[in-house]
Amino acid sequence: QLLGQWFYIAGATRYPPHLEEMKAVKYEAFSFFPVNHEDELNVTGFMRLNETCLERNSKVHVFLQNSTLMHVDENQVVSVAKMIQSDKDLLILNHTNIDFPSLSLSARTPNVSKEHLEEFKAHLHCLGFTEEEVLYTS
To answer: Does the keyword Nucleotide-binding apply (predicted)?
Structure first.
């Protein structure tokens, strides 16, 4: 279900380094591609940070038994996230490898339905975030 293209829509975090990057993200799209191991995916991402465009290639290890993704870049664990997903076109990730609450929303299209946005906001509320703390891409 993860294979293919995704668009980063919004996120919220209280982790200072991630918060600064999230404020600068104007656009982000990424794609998951299979590799030889069924529990590993290649990821190609394109993002615009303020006025700078970047391409990133990395890997994601998938742990199906607990719905967890481990993002690895240059053999370093970048993040670990629990998938919270009720729809095949929606990817809500609760980033768990830091001691700060952090949640992100991605979707198959650059726009999400009101229902999907409400679901994301419900998860944000459970983690103690307010609407003012949510950072959206443009």
So the answer is: no
Task: From 18, 64, 19, select the one nearest 39 (Cα to Cα).
Answer: 64
Cα–Cα distance for residue pair 97/52, rounded to 1 Å: 28
At residue 91, what are phi and psi to the nearest 5 degrees? -130, 105
Q: What angle do CA 83, 137, 20 make, to 5 degrees?
A: 85
For 66-101, the pLDDT digits (tens) are 999 999 888 888 889 999 976 889 999 998 877 888
Q: Give the global pTM.
A: 0.90
DSSP labels, 62-84? EEGGGTEEEEEETTEEEEEEEEE
CATH superfamily, with its number, for domain 4-136: Calycin beta-barrel core domain (2.40.128.20)
State how far Cα 128 lies from the chain centre: 19
**Tokens standing for 21?**
């990057």
pLDDT of residue 37: 83
Q: Answer whether residue 20 shows pLDDT above 80.
A: yes
Best CA proximity match to 116, nearest among 94, 72, 96, 86: 86
